[in-house]
Design a protein that fits this description.
The complex is a heterotrimer. Chain A is an alpha/beta fold. Chain A has helices at residues 3-18, 31-39, 46-50, 53-61, 88-101, 117-122, 137-140, 184-191, 203-211, 222-230, 259-272, 275-288; strands at residues 64-68, 71-72, 76-79, 84-86, 107-111, 128-134, 144-159, 175-179, 196-200, 217-221, 236-238, 243-253. In chain B, 78% of the residues lie in helices and 0% in strands. Chain B has helices at 5-10, 15-45, 51-54, 60-96, 100-115, 118-128, 138-164, 167-175, 180-210, 222-233, 236-259. Chain B starts with a helix and ends in a 7-residue tail after the last helix. Chain C is mostly helical. Chain C has helices spanning 4-45, 49-64, 67-77, 87-111, 116-124, 129-144, 146-159, 173-183, 187-216. The chains are: A alpha/beta, B mainly alpha, C mainly alpha. The interface between B and C is large, with 55 and 65 residues.
Chain lengths: 300, 266, 220
């Protein structure tokens, strides 16, 4: 009897015994609508691509090397059953791939975290990074940003039964999680300097730390926190309103690359023809119960 | 033929002692079962037997997905092992050489690679090398440091094997007129190799273990795919448990091969 | 390598702290792992089949599991089983478990070097098995495994690098190098300093081990 069949039998036994219920990831994304939206995105003409070095290189390789994540519920989540990644960031990336190569699935995925995002661009491991990537001056010294394509602020997440922390003002002396290499540490240094900061490599690890009581609060991008709330387990709540400076998300590109102009032109295009709004609705709006489509930020 | 120490220590017990042993054995077995029960209870208490945490393991797609991760692990481990075996041989030849100009660099390289953590070498490939223009793919940023690190240890293992070949054989071969190179290649090394296969296989296990650092350089292997499953199904304990068992099974299978080939050499 | 001096000026104290933390983690893990390994080895000698089976399983598991996987399990998965261990103890626990498994393995080989005839002689003198283990077998076994245990200690010190994967309040050497490489351009210099520290520590341990081995080694 092979190991895997023994394991499967055991698991099935547990499943039957425990009366399994289908686990929903909050409201799952409407896969059909998402795929359809990507499939009817614009395709650039040959001249536009030829005049841009970054796009031409991708066209020649016939693959766009993408740095992104597979584990962000609203923005970029891998469904390992059909092997497709869907979400707001994923949609933009696939539409951009389609824009250059005519087919939204011709990308090669590399998993990045908040602490590896710059390095993979510097190392030329990827052509671009689309991963809730906040534009900051410090990062702009190492790489270039296109966009912004979205805007957010910081938020504080606490457990539902936590009455002690009402906002970022109450974080003094409290164990607070944030993501290493994200804007979190800087924001905490500015707005809650007395917080005891613990830096985690991924969003999921920070969430688990909060759930397990290792930390009392989690400070990160407000939209990522919406992710958590959209899962509807009721375990966590936001403490206070979004705070801090406006946090623009950009698309990471190699330093000085002319891809910046190319991608900006693409972003303006999909904002103008309503595709951006449709993508937001499918990936974020419908799943968090918001109907107010935000206006996309202005691109310089 | 030496008897196992346990048998000598506890062989021919008196009837009374045997009875005590049986009673204590039963007691120990009961204690262990109680321990297992306590663990199972803890799982249950923490809600870890909930269906939703395990049901996806019944789907083939989950195992295919994990299998892909495992392939990534093995692909890196295989190449690293080859690098280690070949480079280790080069370092060995340098190490054994009479010429100082070959020996000293070999010793320096071996001591350096053995004395520095593999994870540190991985960070160097990922963070430092690119700043001097050396840009490797994720696969090589994992495989190269692991291969180099292991090569140094393998060189020392080779050396232990070579030193274990009786001197008399070398002398006899030289007396027959074989050149030093011929002696090494046809007489010493093949025998040394047979002595040290268990130790080499042990290094292979270490190589597989080192590939778990793949996520540091964004190389996709088993740990990374595990994290996707965790995020998708919010099932932490079951996924990590299954992945840990998978690693143990793979490594155990590899080291089993060495048990058939005699006692391990340090 | 002119960037080493300004690097040391700025990060000198941080490097010293990191080195001390590395040594601290190494020492605590080794002492606990070594002690646990001895207990396991002795327990495995007892003629209790269930115990031997479980302990053999223990040794196989902790020899074959990747340390990082074990650490991540302890830090991130155990809390879901209501066992929350702080980060530094988690690292020490991980290394202790792995060290104990390898110690048990090496010690068992060491024990097998003790001649059966000695045990027979001790038995015929009326010594109890446990006394034989503690006064005849173990001392000789320990004296014969100094060399592999030295290698294990060095390997353990290098393994403390995995503490960089969890949010420890302090940074050990590898975490410090990663941070410096990320924040500044002094990556190579930082790596050189850390490498020198690891190498020096390893050489000291190796020298101490060789000296101890020479003193206590049993020539047969």
């Amino acid at each position: 009897m092979s190991i895997s069949s023994v394991l499967k039998a055991t698991v099935l036994a547990f499943t039957v015994a425990a009366g399994a219920s289908v686990h929903a990831q909050g409201a799952p994304i409407n896969a059909a609508a998402f795929d359809a939206l990507v499939a009817q995105g614009p395709v650039a003409d040959a001249a536009t691509i030829a005049s841009n070095k970054w796009a031409s290189k991708i066209k020649q390789a016939d693959t766009l090397r993408l740095g992104a994540t597979q584990t962000s519920n609203l923005f970029s989540m891998l469904n390992e059953k059909d092997g497709k990644i869907r979400g707001f960031d994923a949609g933009l990336a696939q539409m951009l791939t389609r824009y250059i190569l005519g087919d939204g699935s011709k990308y090669k995925f590399t998993q990045v975290t908040s602490s590896t995002r710059e390095q993979v661009l510097i190392n030329d491991q990827v052509d671009m990074v689309l991963a809730t990537y906040s534009i900051t001056p410090a990062r702009a010294e190492k790489i270039s940003f296109a966009g912004p394509y979205y805007s957010s602020q910081a938020g504080v997440l606490v457990k539902s039964n936590n009455k002690a922390i009402q906002s970022y003002n109450d974080l003094a002396g409290k164990r607070t999680a944030t993501q290493a290499g994200s804007t979190g540490p800087a924001i905490l240094a500015q707005f809650a300097p007395k917080a005891v900061v613990q830096e985690f490599q991924t969003h999921q690890e920070a969430l688990d730390a909060l759930r397990q009581g290792r930390v009392e609060a989690y400070v990160t991008d407000y939209t990522l926190l919406l992710n958590v709330l959209s899962q509807g387990t009721g375990e966590a709540q936001l403490a206070g309103a979004p705070f801090g400076p406006q946090d623009p998300y950009g698309i990471g590109l190699p330093k000085g690359s002319d891809g910046v102009a190319f991608v900006n032109a693409f972003l303006k295009k999909i904002q103008a023809d309503g595709t951006w709004a449709k993508l937001w609705t499918v990936s974020i709006g419908q799943r968090t119960g918001s109907t107010n489509v935000p206006t996309p930020p202005a691109i310089q | 033929m030496s008897r196992a120490l346990e048998d000598v220590l506890f062989g021919d017990l008196t009837h009374k002692a045997q009875a005590i042993t049986r009673v204590v054995s039963v007691g120990v077995a009961a204690a262990l079962l109680a321990l297992i029960a306590a663990i199972v209870y803890r799982f249950q208490d923490a809600g870890q037997f909930a269906g939703r945490l395990w049901e996806f393991f019944a789907w083939e797609t989950t195992w295919v997905f994990l299998g892909k991760g495992l392939l990534g692990t093995l692909a890196s481990a295989a190449a690293a092992a080859v690098i280690a075996l070949v480079l280790g041989l080069v370092l060995l030849v340098g190490r054994l050489s009479r010429l100082r100009i070959a020996r000293w660099p070999a010793v320096a390289v071996i001591e350096f690679l053995r004395g520095v953590p593999t994870l540190l070498l991985i960070y160097v490939c990922f963070l430092v090398l690119p700043s001097v223009g050396i840009k490797l793919s994720a696969y090589w940023m994992l495989t190269l440091p692991v291969g180099l690190s292991t090569a140094a240890v393998v060189a020392e293992v080779y050396r232990a094997g070579v030193l274990a070949v009786p001197r008399g054989q070398t002398d006899a071969a030289r007396a027959l007129g074989l050149s030093k190179a011929q002696v090494f290649a046809s007489i010493v090394f093949p025998q040394a190799f047979r002595y040290i296969v268990p130790a080499l296989v042990a290094q292979l296990v270490i190589v597989v273990k080192d590939t778990t650092f793949g996520y540091v350089v964004t190389y996709g292997e088993l740990m990374q795919n595990a994290k996707v499953l965790i995020a998708n199904y919010r099932s932490l304990v079951p996924v990590y448990l299954v992945v840990a068992v998978l690693y143990c099974l793979v490594n155990y299978a590899i080291s089993r091969a060495s048990h058939r080939l005699g006692r391990p050499v340090y | 390598m002119g960037s080493v001096s300004p690097l040391l000026a700025e990060y000198g104290p941080a490097f010293v702290q990191a080195l001390l933390l590395t040594w601290k983690l190494t020492a605590l893990s080794f002492v606990s792992g070594f002690a646990l390994g001895i207990v396991i080895t002795v327990a495995r000698l007892l003629p209790l089949r269930p115990l031997r089976f479980v302990l053999t399983l223990y040794v196989e598991v902790f020899r074959n599991i990747p340390s990082v996987a074990l650490l991540i399990f302890i830090v991130f998965a155990l809390p879901d089983l209501n066992v929350v261990i702080d980060y530094e103890p988690s690292v020490i626990l991980t290394l202790c478990l792995v060290c104990s498994a390898f110690t048990a393995d090496y010690l068992r080989t060491g024990i097998n070097t003790v001649d059966g005839g000695q045990i027979d002689a001790a038995r015929s003198l009326g010594m109890q098995p446990m006394t034989i283990i503690t006064s005849v077998v173990l001392p000789q076994a320990l004296r014969s495994v100094v060399q592999p245990m030295t290698s294990l200690l060095i390997a353990l010190m290098l393994s403390t690098a995995l503490a960089s994967q969890v949010p420890l309040p302090g940074k050990e050497l590898t975490a410090l190098v990663a941070k410096i490489a990320n924040d500044s351009a002094a990556g190579i210099a930082a790596f050189a300093v850390a490498a020198a520290m690891y190498l020096a520590s390893g050489l000291i341990i190796a020298w101490a081990g060789a000296t101890l081995d020479r003193k206590v080694r049993i020539l047969r």
